[in-house]
């Protein structure tokens, strides 16, 4: 069965090239004829792994193509997910599998509500990748991918494709805990790197702020029924800061390159959840307002 990949960014390209490398059928879905022409002129998608570069002649099509979709990987940004899936929803077969590989929370539920006939599977990834040029991705950091669906269904047979493609993965009965944990990690690190204009490791100079923020995040996670995501949060945040000390966070890179951030699905989501649960979160709300002010000063969207 063909893997259709919607969103040829860093993670979408990383998945597509590894699947194609093992001879598995893959189709890139691009937004319009102009992008399709640019891709076809480039003659493939390149993967740089451990200093070795390979190019794969993966077939591509636009969202308006008529080929039915039985398995779809949605790898675009959280703020683009609803619009992107809406453009191909008519092509999804009955009981299609749709993998949602977005940061934060909120977009996954919105997409699932749009396509009730499909099986939506949420993915939480800790793999690192970036595009060094158009149609080229660099595999920058080993990690894993946790997959699961909210009805707690059985693991699908096509996980064998991921095993064959050496895409590290684990099926989990509680994907919500993984997604909340990653959201909390992102909220504790990414906004501070933007506001302090620093690499991850430089947050060591702001240890008190990080510690207080993690304590508040843990309280919100406990209140919303995610004690597993709250447990040991500060320790893991400190581990991530140490392990990625020389890196710039994804949000830092978005702001530096004049791109929209996913604030709505990170700080926005956790602050809205805290408010709905009547759980005081003054630091998180203040951090969100500071980040909004910073984004507005840069002329960037803050929603």
TrEMBL record:
Reactions performed catalytically: (R)-pantoate + NADP(+) = 2-dehydropantoate + NADPH + H(+)
GO molecular function: 2-dehydropantoate 2-reductase activity; NADP binding
Origin: domain of life: Bacteria
Enzyme class: oxidoreductase
InterPro entries: 6-PGluconate_DH-like_C_sf (IPR008927), 6PGD_dom2 (IPR013328), ApbA (IPR003710), Ketopantoate_reductase (IPR050838), KPA_reductase (IPR013752), KPR_N (IPR013332), NAD(P)-bd_dom_sf (IPR036291)
An annotated GO cellular component: cytoplasm
NCBIfam families per the UniProt record, alphabetical: apbA_panE, PRK05708.1
Family, similarity comment: Belongs to the ketopantoate reductase family.
Ketopantoate reductase C-terminal domain ranges (all copies): 174-287
Pathway the protein contributes to: Cofactor biosynthesis; (R)-pantothenate biosynthesis; (R)-pantoate from 3-methyl-2-oxobutanoate: step 2/2
EC number(s) given by UniProt: 1.1.1.169
Protein role: Catalyzes the NADPH-dependent reduction of ketopantoate into pantoic acid.
GO biological process, one term: pantothenate biosynthetic process
Name the UniProt record assigns to this protein: 2-dehydropantoate 2-reductase
Record-linked SUPFAM superfamilies: 6-phosphogluconate dehydrogenase C-terminal domain-like, NAD(P)-binding Rossmann-fold domains
């Amino acid at each position: 069965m063909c893997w259709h990949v919607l969103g040829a960014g860093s993670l979408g390209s990383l998945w597509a090239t590894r699947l194609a490398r093992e001879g598995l059928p893959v189709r890139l879905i691009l937004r319009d004829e102009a992008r399709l022409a640019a891709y076809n002129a480039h003659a493939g998608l390149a993967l740089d792994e451990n200093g070795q570069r390979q190019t794969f002649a993966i077939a591509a099509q636009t969202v308006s193509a008529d080929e039915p979709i039985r398995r779809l990987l949605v790898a675009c940004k959280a703020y683009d997910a609803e619009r992107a899936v809406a453009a191909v929803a008519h092509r999804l077969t009955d009981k299609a599998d749709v993998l949602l590989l977005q940061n934060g929370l909120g977009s996954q539920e919105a997409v699932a509500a749009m396509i009730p006939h499909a099986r939506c599977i949420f993915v939480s990834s800790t793999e690192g990748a970036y595009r060094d040029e158009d149609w080229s991705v660099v595999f920058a950091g080993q990690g894993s991918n946790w997959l699961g669906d909210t009805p707690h269904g059985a693991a699908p047979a096509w996980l064998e494709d991921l095993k064959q493609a050496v895409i590290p993965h684990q099926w989990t009965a509680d994907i919500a805990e993984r997604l909340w944990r990653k959201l909390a990690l992102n909220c504790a690190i990414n906004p501070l790197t933007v506001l302090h204009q620093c690499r991850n490791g430089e947050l060591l100079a702001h240890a008190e702020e990080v510690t207080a923020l993690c304590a508040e995040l843990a309280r919100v996670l406990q209140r919303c029924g995610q004690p597993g995501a709250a447990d040991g949060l500060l320790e893991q945040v400190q581990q991530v800061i140490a392990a990625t000390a020389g890196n710039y966070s994804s949000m830092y890179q978005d702001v530096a390159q004049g791109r929209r951030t996913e604030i709505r699905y990170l700080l926005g989501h956790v602050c809205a959840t805290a408010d709905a649960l009547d759980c005081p979160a003054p630091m998180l709300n203040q951090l969100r307002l500071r980040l909004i002010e910073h984004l507005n000063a840069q002329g960037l969207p803050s929603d």
